[in-house]
C-alpha cells in the first residue's frame, strides 16, 4: 500500500468517532495500513494534537470492541498517526496553511505527495471543499489524490448533477470515491460470489426459474438525532435512491467478464438502464408510501413520527416505502423485484429473498394445501446467513411435505465492519465497492418521478403502527401478483 496523508474533514463529528476511527484502528491491528501515514483531522474547534488524540482514544473506548482486548501501548502507537488542525472549510486562507502543514509532515516522514481527502461533513460543503482543494494546490501533481465522499449525494436529480459537475472541476471521475456503506457489508460484497461462483445457483439465476425477488431493509429505530435531515429526505432519499437500488443492481447484474471494478460497474449500470421508468401516473400503482404512528417495539411504546423531537407535527414525510420494479431485459423480464424499507418496524433486518418458480406438478397436494416454493434467503444484517429452503417429508407429521432450511451463517463478531472494508479499499485505490457517478445519476432518474408525485401530493401517505411491517397496502402490492412478503 502506498504511503499517504489522510486528511479528514469533520474529524470532530459523529461519523468520525463512531465509524472512522474504530475502523482505522482495526486496520492498524490487522497491519492493513501503510507504514508511513499521517492522519490530519480538521474541524472548526480549536483543538491541539493532544486533545484530538484523547478524543480518538475515547472514541475507541466507546465504539471499538477490539480496543478492549489490546495492550495500552498498541493504542498509543495508533494515536501517533493523528494530528489536528483547526480549519473552516469556507475560508480559502486556511487551505494554504493546511498545505504547509501537510508538506511539513510529508518531508519529516518521507511520505510521497499522495493525499486522501475524506469529507465527513455536511453535504453542502462537498463542492466547497473540493474546489478549495484545487485552488490551494492541495492536490499535488507529484502524487495521487482521492476524494472520499459521504452521503447524501444531492437531494434530487438536478442537485446531484450540479454537485457532480462541481466536483469534476477539481477531481477526475476515478479519483472520486462515493460511499454507500451498504456496499461495505460483507454479505453484500458476497452477492456476486453467490451468483457467479455457484454453478447450481447460476443456472437458476434468471426469469426462467425465479418468480420474484424481495429486498427488505427494515429498522426498529426512529429518526434518532437526525430530524432536520430526515424530515427533508424521507425513506425515499435516505434508503431507496442509494442502498436499495444498489442491492437491486447487485442482485440482478449479469456475470462480468472479469472481476474488475469497471466490469462490475458496467453490469450494475446495465441493470439501471433496463429498469422500467415510472411515469407520474404509474407511481401510485407501483409504490406504497407510509409514515409510522404510535406503537410498541419490543414491549416499549414509541411515539408517532410527528411526535418525534424536531419533526413538524404536520409533517407528511415518508418513513416507509415499498415498491415494485421491473427490469426489462432478456434475463429478468416478467420477474417483479419488490423493495421495502422503513423506520420503526417490527424488526431490524436487511435481507434478499429469491423465490423460485413452482412449476412441478404437485404430487403432494392431497396432504398439503400447496407445496411451498423453494427460497434462497440472503440475510445481510444484523446477522449474516445464506439459507436455502427445500421441501421434504416430515415423518412425524403424517409425512406432510414441509420446508427444511439449509443454512450457512457467519458469527457476527468475526465479520468486519462495512467502514473497515471500505476504508481499506480507499487506502488501496480499489473502487469496486464505491459508487460511480453514472449509478448515482441513473438512480436519481428512476426516483425523480416519485419525488414529483410526492410533491404534487398525488400519493396517499398510509399510516402504520410502529412495531409492524408497514402499511397493509404494502402487502396488497404483492398479493395483486399472487405473492406475499417472506
Ligand atoms: N453520523 C452518521 O451515522 C452518518 C453520517 N453520514 C454523513 O457523514 C457526514 C458527517 O456526518 P456527522 O459526522 O454525523 O456530522 P456532525 O454534525 O456530527 O459533524 C460535522 C463535522 O463537520 C465539521 N464542520 C461543520 N462546519 C464546518 C466548517 N464550516 N468548517 C469546518 N468543519 C466544519 C464539524 O466540526 P466542528 O464542529 O469542530 O466545526 C464536525 O466535525 C454527513 O455528510 C452525513 O450525511 C452518513 C451516514 C451515517
Ligand atoms: O444510510 C443509512 O443507513 C442506516 C441503516 O443502515 P444499517 O447499516 O443499520 O442497515 C439508516 O438508519 C439511516 O437512516 C440511513 O441514513
TrEMBL record:
- Catalytically driven reaction(s): D-glucose 6-phosphate + NADP(+) = 6-phospho-D-glucono-1,5-lactone + NADPH + H(+)
Q: Where does NADP(+) bind?
A: 10-17, 44, 88-89, 151
Q: What does this protein do?
A: Catalyzes the oxidation of glucose 6-phosphate to 6-phosphogluconolactone.
SUPFAM superfamilies referenced in this protein's UniProt entry, alphabetically:
Glyceraldehyde-3-phosphate dehydrogenase-like, C-terminal domain, NAD(P)-binding Rossmann-fold domains
- Identify the residues that the record assigns to the Glucose-6-phosphate dehydrogenase C-terminal domain, covering every copy: 193-486
Which range is the signal sequence, renumbered to this chain?
none
Source organism, top-level taxon: Bacteria
Pathway-wise, it operates in: Carbohydrate degradation; pentose phosphate pathway; D-ribulose 5-phosphate from D-glucose 6-phosphate (oxidative stage): step 1/3
What the entry lists under Gene3D superfamilies is as follows: Dihydrodipicolinate Reductase, domain 2, NAD(P)-binding Rossmann-like Domain
| Taxonomic lineage from the root | Bacteria, Bacillati, Bacillota, Bacilli, Bacillales
GO BP annotations, alphabetical order: glucose metabolic process; pentose-phosphate shunt, oxidative branch
User: Which NCBIfam families does this entry report, sorted A to Z?
Assistant: zwf
The positions annotated for binding substrate are 181, 185, 219, 238, 343, 348
Q: What class of enzyme is it?
A: oxidoreductase
- Alphabetical UniProt keywords: Carbohydrate metabolism, Glucose metabolism, NADP, Oxidoreductase
Annotated protein name in UniProt: Glucose-6-phosphate 1-dehydrogenase
Q: Which GO terms describe its cellular component?
A: cytosol
The record places the active site at 243
Its EC number(s): 1.1.1.49
- Record gene name: zwf
Q: Which residues form the Glucose-6-phosphate dehydrogenase NAD-binding domain?
A: 7-190
**According to its UniProt record, which protein family does this protein belong to?**
Belongs to the glucose-6-phosphate dehydrogenase family.
Amino acid at each position: 500500500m502506498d504511503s499517504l496523508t489522510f486528511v479528514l474533514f469533520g474529524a470532530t463529528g459523529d461519523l468520525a468517532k463512531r465509524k472512522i476511527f474504530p475502523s482505522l484502528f482495526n486496520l492498524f491491528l490487522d497491519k492493513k495500513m501503510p507504514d508511513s501515514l499521517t492522519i490530519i483531522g480538521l474541524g472548526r474547534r480549536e483543538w491541539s494534537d493532544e486533545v484530538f488524540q484523547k478524543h480518538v482514544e475515547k472514541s475507541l473506548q466507546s465504539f471499538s470492541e477490539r480496543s478492549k482486548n489490546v495492550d495500552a501501548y498498541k493504542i498509543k502507537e495508533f494515536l501517533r498517526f493523528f494530528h489536528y488542525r483547526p480549519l473552516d472549510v469556507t475560508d480559502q486562507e486556511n487551505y494554504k496553511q493546511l498545505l504547509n502543514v501537510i508538506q511539513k509532515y510529508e518531508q519529516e516522514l518521507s511520505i510521497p505527495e499522495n493525499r486522501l481527502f475524506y469529507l465527513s461533513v455536511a453535504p453542502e460543503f462537498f463542492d466547497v471543499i473540493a474546489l478549495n482543494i484545487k485552488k490551494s494546490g492541495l492536490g499535488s501533481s507529484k502524487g495521487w489524490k482521492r476524494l472520499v465522499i459521504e452521503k447524501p449525494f444531492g437531494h434530487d436529480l438536478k442537485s446531484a448533477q450540479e454537485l457532480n459537475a462541481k466536483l469534476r472541476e477539481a477531481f477526475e471521475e476515478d479519483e472520486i470515491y462515493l460511499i454507500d456503506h451498504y456496499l461495505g457489508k460483507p454479505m453484500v460484497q458476497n452477492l456476486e460470489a453467490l451468483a457467479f461462483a455457484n454453478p447450481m445457483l447460476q443456472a437458476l439465476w434468471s426469469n426462467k426459474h425465479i418468480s420474484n425477488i424481495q429486498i427488505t431493509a427494515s429498522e426498529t429505530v426512529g429518526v434518532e438525532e437526525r430530524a432536520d435531515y430526515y424530515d427533508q429526505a424521507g425513506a425515499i432519499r435516505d434508503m431507496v435512491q442509494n442502498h436499495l437500488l444498489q442491492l437491486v443492481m447487485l442482485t440482478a447484474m449479469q456475470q462480468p467478464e472479469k472481476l474488475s471494478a469497471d466490469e462490475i460497474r458496467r453490469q450494475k449500470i446495465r441493470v439501471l438502464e433496463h429498469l422500467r421508468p415510472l411515469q407520474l401516473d404509474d407511481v401510485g400503482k407501483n409504490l406504497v408510501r407510509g409514515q409510522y404512528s404510535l406503537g410498541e417495539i419490543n414491549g416499549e411504546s414509541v411515539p408517532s413520527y410527528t411526535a418525534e423531537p424536531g419533526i413538524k407535527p404536520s409533517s407528511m414525510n415518508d418513513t416507509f416505502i415499498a415498491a415494485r420494479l421491473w427490469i426489462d431485459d432478456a434475463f429478468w423480464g416478467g420477474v417483479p423485484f419488490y423493495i421495502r424499507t422503513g423506520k420503526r418496524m417490527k424488526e431490524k433486518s436487511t435481507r434478499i429473498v429469491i423465490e423460485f418458480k413452482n412449476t412441478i406438478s404437485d404430487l403432494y397436494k392431497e396432504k398439503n394445501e400447496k407445496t411451498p416454493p423453494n427460497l434462497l434467503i440472503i440475510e445481510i444484517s444484523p446477522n449474516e446467513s445464506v439459507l436455502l429452503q427445500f421441501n421434504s417429508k416430515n415423518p412425524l407429521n403424517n409425512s406432510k411435505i414441509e420446508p427444511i432450511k439449509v443454512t450457512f451463517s457467519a458469527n457476527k463478531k468475526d465479520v468486519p465492519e462495512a467502514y473497515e472494508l471500505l476504508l481499506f479499499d480507499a487506502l488501496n485505490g480499489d473502487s469496486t465497492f464505491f459508487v460511480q457517478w453514472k449509478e448515482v445519476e441513473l438512480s436519481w432518474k428512476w426516483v425523480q418521478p416519485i419525488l414529483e408525485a410526492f410533491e404534487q401530493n398525488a400519493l396517499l401517505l398510509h399510516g402504520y403502527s410502529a412495531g409492524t411491517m408497514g402499511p397493509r397496502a404494502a402487502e396488497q402490492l404483492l398479493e395483486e401478483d399472487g405473492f406475499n412478503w417472506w
